[in-house]
Amino acid sequence: MIVLIGYMRLTLGILLGAAGMLISRLTGRGGGLAVSGLIAEVIAPDIYQHVGSTLKPDLVFVTGTNGKTSTTNLISEILAAKGAKVVSNHSGANIARGISGAYISSLFGSAFGGGARAGVFEVDEAVVPQLATAMRPSVQVFLNLSRDQLDRYGEIDRILDNWVKSITKARPGEEQALVVNADDPRLFPLVEGGNQSEVDVITFGLEEQPSFWKDFDYATDREFCVCGTIVEYRERFSGHLGDWFCSSCGRHRTRPDVTGRILESSQAGTTVEVSVRPVSEMRVFYVPQLGEYPAYNLLAAAAAAFKLDINLDVVEGSVNQAKAKFGRQEQFHYDDKVIRIWLAKNPRGLDEIFKALIVKEAKRQHLLFVLNSDVQDGKDVSWIYDANFESLRGRYRSLAVSGFRASDLSLRATVAGLENIETCDDIGGAMRASLDAMDGGEYLEIIASYTAMLEIRSIVAKLTDTAPFWK
Questions:
Q1: In a shared domain, residues 396 and 356
Q2: Mean pLDDT highest for which of 105-114, 131-140, 171-180, 263-272?
Q3: What are the φ/ψ torsions at residue 171 (nearest 5 degrees)?
Q4: pLDDT tens digits, 191-231
Q5: Alpha helices in 175-268 (DSSP H)
Q6: Chain segment 284-318, per-residue pLDDT in tens
Q7: pLDDT category, 52, cuts 50, 70, 90?
Q8: pTM value?
Q9: H-helix segments, 339-440
Q10: Positive or negative CA dihedral for 8, 11, 14, 16?
Q11: pLDDT of 33 strictly over 70
């Protein structure tokens, strides 16, 4: 009887959640993943255990400060190429209810129309322990960890501590592995925790920083080892990521199992040489995204694929067909002009955008910065002073700022010595003015916080006759 009641509650939760999703889409309020998941979890709190057991053994979590959505999409493409029917929150709805909502959406789509089931979910840093305990993923990918929205998360030490505490030994017959960025000294406790809990750990990282980014100036905090000593670097690759070591206790960056070397970064994309040391495989990949973080995302996806027994041939075919999605360097064509949207939500991510932009031809790019301060963006916008706006001097044809905090952006750009700054509070008006200033073949690079990105993507989708992000 108890089992029957539980099944009835689960079924009711899924059906009512699907109804909420449908209403959200019909009324134009969005994809409805979060509202459907909320309805379902209120009626059936054990829905996450059900989702986890349904999607195993290929159930992957992806978390970290930057790169979650892009890496999730890459791993989803790889599993799909393997023949699996993949369920994923590809639009970035990464709190618990967004994940259950993605599962509900798949039940009424094509994900369960036949073939193997798999799940690849982007997971918000704060809910990793809760969902890992409930869903028991077979692979957890940890990309990086830096300060992001302190008003929501608090200090990163708290997040890391909760991640480490959530690592537990695999149950009998259960597959469990951690994929960890070896270049991030903040993540080393995950490597130690995994080893202590007898969980498989595979690491990934870069071999070196490309010469064309060696002079980029980061505003970085001092990194401390878990023993309390300041971390030192043989070479920094990106911010606090690099070949690090502690001269006091001897902890150091382990040689990554999956390594990468960035061969080229152009206006069209990034070329990366990837090696999987345990099986002595090497391939050269082309990623249709700019900068260093897309290389890290590729390495993380390749490492996850290795743990899922997927070889580099499958990975190569998937990556070559992958496209940037949902505001993560997503491109749109308007007449003979190109609009590219970049999500920026913290200083480290914004610096990576700047690094990507400074290797482009300055005469062909127009910049539009849009900053809001809603809850999803983070109320405190002082983080923009920790990003290297100064690197953009002489790197653009036009520069405009917009959003609720346009005045803050204008001041920051002025302090950085940037010139000819246009300010427009109305996002749509700012974008139209930027497009009017462009010649054919030029790029409008829109760098936006989260809620601004949603509004911009909606405007651009209508302008270019593109489907909403949930379709």
A1: yes
A2: 131-140
A3: -75, 160
A4: 999 999 999 999 999 998 887 777 777 766 678 888 889 99
A5: 188-196
A6: 999 888 889 999 999 999 999 999 999 898 998 88
A7: very high
A8: 0.91
A9: 347-358, 406-415, 427-436
A10: negative
A11: yes
CATH number at residue 393: 3.90.190.20
444 vs 446: CA distance, rounded Å: 6
Strands 59-63 and 139-142: parallel
Between the alpha carbon of residue 127 and those of residues 123, 163, 302, 398, the distances in Å are 7, 9, 24, 40
List phi, psi (to 5°) of 208: -165, 165
Say what percent of the chain tops pLDDT 90: 56
Tell me what pLDDT residue 4 has: 57
Backbone angles phi, psi at 251, to 5 degrees: -65, 145
> Which residue among 272, 294, 319 closes a domain?
319
Provide the residue type at 320 as one letter. Answer: N
Report the pLDDT value the prediction gives residue 147, as an integer from 0 to 100: 78
Q: Are 70 and 122 in contact (CB under 8 A)?
A: no
Range of the structural domain that residue 344 is part of: 328-464
Distance CA 93, CA 103 (A): 12
Nearest-angstrom CA–CA distance, 354 and 360: 10
- For helices 47-55 and 128-135, the axis angle rounded to 10 degrees is 60
Helices (H), 154-205: 156-165, 188-196
Q: What is the pLDDT of residue 427?
A: 93
Instruction: State whether 230 and 84 are in the same domain.
Output: yes
Within this chain, do residues 300 and 382 fall inside the same structural domain, yes or no?
no
Residue 38's H or E segment, with its range, is helix 33-43
What gap in Å lies between CA 9 and CA 28, rounded to an integer?
Answer: 28
Per-residue pLDDT at 169: 81
Q: Which two tokens stand for residue 460?
A: 């651009």
DSSP character string of 256-322:
PSEEEEEEEE-SS-EEEEEEEGGGTEEEEEEESS-SSHHHHHHHHHHHHHHHTT--HHHHHHHHHH-
Q: What dihedral do alpha carbons 32, 35, 40, 43 form, nearest 10°?
A: -150
Q: Looking at 277, 292, 319, which one is the last position of a domain? A: 319
Could you give the percent of the chain with pLDDT greater than 70?
93
Two tokens, residue 150: 């302190």
Distance separating alpha carbons of residues 405 and 409, to the nearest angstrom: 7
pLDDT at 3 (0 to 100): 55
Contacts with 157 (C-beta within 8 Å, 6 or more apart), sequence order:
none
d(C-alpha 456, C-alpha 428), whole Å: 7
CA-based nearest residue to 431, from 335, 339, 315, 350: 339
Residue 47 backbone phi and psi in degrees, to 5: -60, -30
The CA–CA distances, whole Å, from 110 to 17, 21, 36, 260 equal 18, 16, 18, 35
CA distance 414 to 400: 12
